[in-house]
Design goal:
Blueprint (H helix, E strand, L loop, with lengths): L11 H14 L3 E4 L4 H14 L2 E3 L9 E3 L13 E3 L4 H4 L8 H12 L7 E9 L8 E7 L2 H10 L1 E2 L1 H7 L5 E6 L20 E5 L4 E5 L4 H4 L2 H17 L2 E3 L2 E6 L5 E7 L6 H5 L11 E6 L3 E5 L5 E4 L4 E5 L9 H6 L5 E3 L2 E3 L4 E2 L11 E2 L5 E2 L1 H7 L9 E5 L16 E9 L9 E3 L3 H10 L1 E3 L11 E3 L12 H14 L5 E5 L18 H13 L5 E3 L2 E3 L14 H8 L3 H18 L5 H29 L1
Parallel strand pairs: 1-5, 3-18, 4-9, 6-8, 8-10, 13-24, 24-28
Antiparallel strand pairs: 2-3, 5-6, 5-7, 9-10, 11-15, 12-13, 12-14, 15-16, 16-24, 17-23, 18-23, 19-20, 19-21, 21-22, 25-28, 26-27, 29-30
Helix pairs in contact: 2-5, 12-13, 16-17
The protein binds guanosine-5'-triphosphate (GTP), sulfopyruvate and manganese (II) ion.
């Protein structure tokens, strides 16, 4: 081990594991990451030399790089993602499953010699502030230097983590791109393997990922640890690991409310977390705790407290602009790694939506010459729809002063949303905790480019956690219902939909900064100051209950946005039934009761409208 000082690895298990993995994967070198700036710069320079990274123009984008992946390795691979619990039914119908020893045998076969010719990097990392009681330590072994530099931004890595770890246990995260190099063989620009496995062993807290170098498949602290293994730990230990942003909202009176919101991948978390209120509401101030993951635990005062276990943002690039998300644009002004966006002539980056007019020519994400004319003819995008930026959270202008507070922040409201062209109104307050859990459990959303597969198809995505819940969804719903009973002040639960479309297929809601109007009403409901009307599915604002200063909105338009249409909801309930059917062996009883009562309320609306029709005809 070339850089290993005598006392660098006090952890007996870590020593043993490094030896075991290197015996299996046969790397050319082993390198223990110290997490320093010098190390980061050195790795970046090496990758520029090898062609994996392009250094961006330091006058335009200091300290920043562009990586272009293999066109086959651009998103999470849900079909190749497995939860290998001992019992199949513990993984649930929401996960792919394989017997742990069978999977290990398969992986051992794939991993044999898979790091040949490469350096094996050992990255000790902390999810959450180093040394905080709420934090968890993992070690990722990887043969990808791209993973090392991304992990340094997304988590806290290096020697200081080893110091805190001492001889304690840690989550084993093993990653290989699965592309060994024979002597004299030229490396690919983005090494990866057609065969991919993203596997989790919840009982032994192990993650093994093979074949992909991209995002959630390879940065194992994120979805694999903080969500899939994290959700298993949370279930056993009485906390929650969620696919949620956390933001702080300071009212014009100076009162601060923290809210956590779960939207599926590429459905607006980063944008909502960094929201800038519209000019007419600039007496509100939004601050950012996190944009993707929340760990939530009961506090001594009977409230739920949340931390962001990450240290950076791995955000969707397309659609990000000064108009839609100025804070993100400022965050990524320097020290940022871009993946699969386009390169401009002057050495900067571009993606669809960054500016209204695209540059005259570009190198697109596949390394090909691109002009707006070519795009018109061929439909080729300059940036991949799931292209991303990796940037330190500390660079975000709206970062909350408590973002690294180990105690977390108290949550006043949970918000659940999805991408729905129809059916789901702009905002709904659910009737109580259990009804809120039902709402979150049954949300649907159109699929996006964040995962490989068809885009735009509505699927159930409970709690925006379908790809991330590491155990049976029925048990997960029951765990959520229990958590509400464990605290004396459970947050109110709301549903939102920024993506309803009109008959012409246009978004009906302006979204982005204007979402402040919905957030103001939500906070008003939490504080008991805002009014609402009752609907079959919960409570909703009347037109007059929301602030429309500075936004053209007629009462008729608002009614369309807020419509709860009985026919649409009948179909929605049928889709919910498909989910219920799949999970029925482990669903809480309360769940079915709530399903029935929603149906009954719609039936009585049907009866009421029939009788009013009859009275009209009399
Ligand atoms: P992950 O990182 O994949 O978990 O996604 P995310 O939920 O953080 O998604 P993000 O905020 O990056 O948004 C994804 C896409 O949705 C971007 O193209 C945004 O421009 C778009 N978007 C975000 N908020 C809104 C909104 O309020 N309205 C509309 N119409 N689009 C939005
Ligand atoms: C998501 O898909 O929800 C992401 C991106 O946040 S990734 O880390 O690639 O999973
Ligand atoms: Mn995400």
């Amino acid at each position: 081990m070339q850089n290993l000082k005598n006392d660098a690895l006090k952890n007996v298990e870590l020593n043993r594991w490094i030896q075991e993995v290197s015996d299996l994967t046969q790397p050319a070198k082993i390198y223990i990451c110290d997490g320093s700036q010098e190390e980061y710069d050195r790795l970046c320079n090496e990758m520029v030399t090898s062609g994996l990274l392009t250094k961006l123009n330091p006058n335009k984008r200091p300290g920043s790089f562009l990586a272009l992946s293999d066109p086959s390795d651009v998103a999470r691979v849900e079909d190749c993602t497995f939860i290998c619990s001992k019992e199949k039914n513990d993984a649930g119908p929401n996960n792919n499953w394989m017997d742990p020893s069978e999977m290990k045998t398969k992986l051992n076969g794939l991993m044999k010699g898979c790091m040949k010719g490469r350096t094996m990097y050992v990255i000790p990392f902390s999810m959450g502030p180093i040394g905080s009681p709420i934090s968890q330590i993992g070690v990722e072994i990887t043969d990808s230097p791209y993973v090392v530099i991304n992990m340094r931004i997304m988590t806290r890595i290096g020697s200081k983590v080893l110091d805190i770890l001492g001889n304690n246990s840690f989550v084993h995260c093993l990653h290989s791109v699965g592309a060994p190099l024979e002597v004299g063989q030229k490396d690919m620009k983005w090494p990866c393997n057609k065969t991919k496995y993203i596997t989790h062993f919840p009982e032994t807290k192990e993650i093994i990922s093979f074949g992909s170098g991209y995002g959630g498949n390879a940065l194992l602290g994120k979805k694999c640890f903080a969500l899939r293994i994290g959700s298993n730990m949370g279930k056993t230990e009485g906390w929650l690991a969620e696919h949620m942003l956390i933001l702080g909202a300071e009212s014009p009176k100076g009162e601060k409310t923290y809210v956590a919101a779960a939207f599926p991948s590429a459905c607006g978390k980063t944008n909502f977390a960094m929201l800038i209120p519209p000019p007419a509401m600039n007496d509100w101030k939004i601050t950012t705790i996190g944009d993707d993951i929340a760990w939530i635990k009961p506090g001594k005062d009977g409230r739920l407290y949340a931390i962001n276990p990450e240290a950076g943002y791995f955000g969707v690039a397309p659609g990000t602009s000064l108009k839609t998300n100025k804070n993100a644009i400022l965050t990524i002004a320097k020290n940022t790694i871009f993946t699969n966006v386009a390169l401009t002539e002057d050495g900067d980056v571009w993606w669809e939506g960054l500016t209204d007019t695209p540059p005259e020519k570009l190198i697109d994400w596949q390394g090909q010459f691109w002009t707006p004319e070519i795009a018109k003819e061929t439909g080729r995008k300059a940036a991949h729809p799931n292209s991303r930026f990796t940037a330190p959270a500390s660079q975000c202008p709206s970062v909350d002063s408590n973002w690294e507070n180990p105690e977390g922040v108290p949550i006043g409201a949970f918000i659940f949303g999805g991408r729905r062209a129809t059916t789901i109104p702009l905002v709904t307050e659910t009737k109580d905790w259990d009804n809120g859990v039902y709402w979150a459990a049954t949300i649907g959303s159109e699929t996006t480019a964040a995962a490989v597969g068809a885009v735009g198809q509505v699927r159930r995505d409970p709690f925006a956690m379908l790809p991330f819940c590491g155990y049976h969804m029925g048990d997960y719903f029951a765990h959520w219902m229990d958590m509400g009973k464990k605290v004396s002040h459970p947050p109110k639960i709301f549903g939102v939909n920024w993506f309803r479309k009109d008959a012409a297929g246009k978004f009906m809601w302006a979204g982005y900064g204007e979402n402040m109007r919905v957030l103001e009403w939500i906070i008003g409901r939490v504080n008991g100051t805002a009014k609402a009307a009752e609907t079959e599915i919960g409570f909703a604002p009347h037109f007059a209950d929301m602030n429309w200063n500075g936004l053209p909105m007629t009462e008729a338009q608002f009614k369309e946005l807020s419509k709860v249409d009985a026919a649409e909801w009948n179909s929605e309930l049928k889709l919910q039934d498909e989910l219920i059917e799949k999970l029925k062996d482990r669903l809480p009883k309360k769940f079915l009761e709530i399903r029935k009562s929603i149906q009954t309320r719609f039936e009585s609306r049907g009866a009421a409208s029939k009788s009013s029709l009859m009275s009209m005809s009399l």
